[in-house]
Amino acid sequence: DVAARAVDVWKVYGSGEAQVVALHGVSVELERGRFTAIMGPSGSGKSTLMHCLAGLDTVTRGEVFVGDTRVSGLGDRALTDLRRDKVGFIFQQFNLLPTLTAEENILLPLSIAGRKPDRQWFDTVVDTVGLRDRLRHRPTQLSGGQQQRVACARALVARPEVIFADEPTGNLDSRSGAEVLSFLRSSVREYGQTIVMVTHDAGAASYADRVIFLADGRIVDELREPTSEAVL
Ligand code: ADP
Ligand code: ADP
């Protein structure tokens, strides 16, 4: 069962002298209910691949699917719908709205989509990330680790087809990073969430079920059930 798929995806930025081929015909299937990490050095195309899969960026050639939806070829309007209804995002910089409380931030994707929150699921998610006593706090009143846990809850509460996490531990100390990664892993194990995480940190990637290695815009290696020694 496949949650997202890239088929011979090419991505070219710019033209002429300034042309950069960021992806050279990448094909990959991301299984549903799995935690996949995409690793590779800076400039290897990790963010580009994630953005193409998530409908944040268009492909130059090839096809991308999220669930049954063929993402490549969708217009701007349909891409907006896809991002709202089918995918969740976690960013390095948390990207919480500063004027909203933690609870309002968590519920924002549902209110934008005009969906009613399932209170029981909301409570489950909030308890799993350990934010029960921080729901009325605004982002500036929370530590970095707590803010990222709010962002995780916000992604998970909408039960998206796939959660895309771009360097989610990049701004966290190792303890807060480990908490966030444990939460991501348990949301996969316990709730069947599908997660795709971009990272250049081998320690972070070792939380995943599968690691895909990119170099110069190509998949060069892959590991199942990685240990941190194997990823390094
Ligand atoms: P990574 O996430 O692995 O660091 P990126 O996907 O950000 O790699 O970048 C892959 C390549 O594409 C790099 O050579 C980068 O300079 C280039 N690139 C990324 N985004 C753009 C852009 N908007 N315009 C031009 N080149 C870009
Ligand atoms: P964590 O265990 O999430 O890493 P810390 O140990 O950094 O949290 O912070 C302990 C407490 O201090 C947190 O519960 C939080 O409420 C508060 N706190 C941390 N950073 C900030 C901040 N920048 N502004 C306001 N309060 C903060």
From TrEMBL:
Show the Pfam families listed in the entry. ABC_tran
Q: Does the keyword Iron apply?
A: no
- Tell me where in this chain the ABC transporter domain is found: 4-232
Could you list this entry's UniProt keywords, alphabetically sorted. Answer: ATP-binding, Nucleotide-binding, Transport
Establish whether keyword Phosphoprotein is in the entry: no
Query: What would be an example GO MF term here?
Result: ATP binding
Gene3D superfamilies according to UniProt: P-loop containing nucleotide triphosphate hydrolases
Domain of life from the UniProt record: Bacteria
Which SMART domains does this chain map to?
AAA (SM00382)
Q: What is this protein called?
A: ABC transporter ATP-binding protein
| Organism, scientific name | Planosporangium thailandense
